[in-house]
Amino acid sequence: MPKITFMGAGSTVFAKNVLGDCMMTPALEESRIALYDIDRNRLEESALMLEAINRNNGSKAVIEKYLGVSMRKEALRGADYVVNAIQVGGYDPCTITDFEIPKKYGLRQTIADTLGVGGVFRALRTIPVMLDFARDMEEVCPDAWLLNYTNPMAMLTGAMLTMSSIRTVGLCHSVQVCAPTLLNELCMGYDDRVQVKIAGINHQAWLLECTRDGEDLYPEIKRRAKLYNEGKLEIGTWEERRAMLSNGEPLPGQWEERMKEEYDLYRKTGRHGDMVRLELMLRFGYYITESSEHNAEYTPYFIKQRYPELIGRFNIPLDEYPRRCIRQIEEWESRREELTKNPMLTHERSREYASYIMEAMETGHPVKIGGNVLNKGLITNLPQRACVEVPCMADRNGIQPTVIGDLPEQCAALNRTNINVQLMTVEAARTRKREDIYRAVMLDPHTSAELSIDDIVSMCDEMIEAHRDWMPEYS
Length: 475
Hints:
four-stranded antiparallel beta sheet
C-alpha cells in the first residue's frame, strides 16, 4: 500500500480532512502515513487525533511521527505522495509583519498570502524550505507526487516545477466551491445538473461557462448580481437563506453565526461579502474563483487612499487575515479536546482533492480536478512559464492537464498583471538579488497604484530586515 507523507502535520484540522479522507478511502485505508512537523506539541496533537480515527476505522493504516529537520529525510523516504501544508514563520511574527510594515507606508491589505507585498514575502520565506524538501525527495522518493496546498499557490508550485525535478500539482478548494457559491448566493440553487468550465490562475481563475441542462446561466447570473450589489435582490427569510447557502447540509456553529451576521448586514445595509467579485464579473464578464476579500487586493480598483469610500461601498475587510488567524487560534483552543482526546472520533470524506487524486493514481479510475500546473501551451494567451489553474485528469499516468486555448482577452490581461508578480518573485528566489524583490513588488497592481518607487524600495528593505531569520541572504 502507498506511503503518504504530510509536511506540516501540525495543521491539525487540515490534516484531519486530508488524511482522514485517505483512511476513509478503500484504496488508501491501509496506507503508511508519515506525519512531519517541527513543532512537537502540534505533531503530537495531530497524531492523537489521527490514531483515534484510525482505530475507529479498524486500525488499517500505519501512522508514524517525525519531528524536526533531522528527521525530514526519513519522513520522506519511500513516499508515494507528499502533501505540503507548511506555513513558514507562522502568524506571529511573520504574518503580523506582513501587515504592519506595509501599513506604515499607507498600504492596506486584506489577506496578503497570495499577491502583493505580503504574498511576495510569504513566498520568499517558503520557497527555500520547499526546495529543501525537493532535494530530499530527489534523493529518497524521486517518483513521488507532491500535492501542494500552501499559499502563495502559483509562486510556490511554479518554483517547484521550474527549480526542481519533483512532480508537483497545486491544489486549491476555491475551484470546487466557485459555482455553488455563486448560484446559491444569487438564490438560483446548485445541483448536479450544473456544468462548468474554469481556467486561469490560482485565486483568479475564471468561470468561463456555467450551464444547467445545456442552458447558459450567465444572463440570469448577471441580472441577479447587479440587483444583489444594489441591495435589491430578494434573499428570503433567514431559514430560507441558510438552507440555500448550505445546500441543506449541517454547518459548524461558527459558520452559521457568520452567515447570520452577513444576512443581517444585507437586510440592514444592502451590503454583502461578495461585492468585489460580482463587480469584477459585471465589468470583465466572468466570475472569479476566489473570494472578494482576496480579489480586492489583486487589482488596483478597490483599496485606494484617494477613494476611502470604496472600502464601505464594497464591504472590503481590511486586515482580515490577522483577524482570521486570531479567530482560528481561539477556535482551535475550543476544539482541541474534541479532536485530540475523543476516543470515538470519526471522519467523513471531504471534498478536498488530495485523496481523490491518490485514489485515481492507485486504481486507475480517473477523476477530474482543478490543478495548478506549468503553462505548457495550455492557456495560449498567458506566458508559458506561468503556473496556471486548469481542469486536469488524474489517473495511473499522473496529472494530465486540459488545453484551454485563449482566455477572453480581458481575462487574460488581468491574469497577466498577477503573473508578472509571480514570475518575478520566483526569479528573486532563484537569484537571491534584492533588486528582484523590489521589482516583484513594483509590479504588483495594488502596491504600484498606491506607493512611489522610493517607498516600495524602503518598505521592502524593512521587510527583508524583519524577516531575516526566515529568509536567505539577498545581495
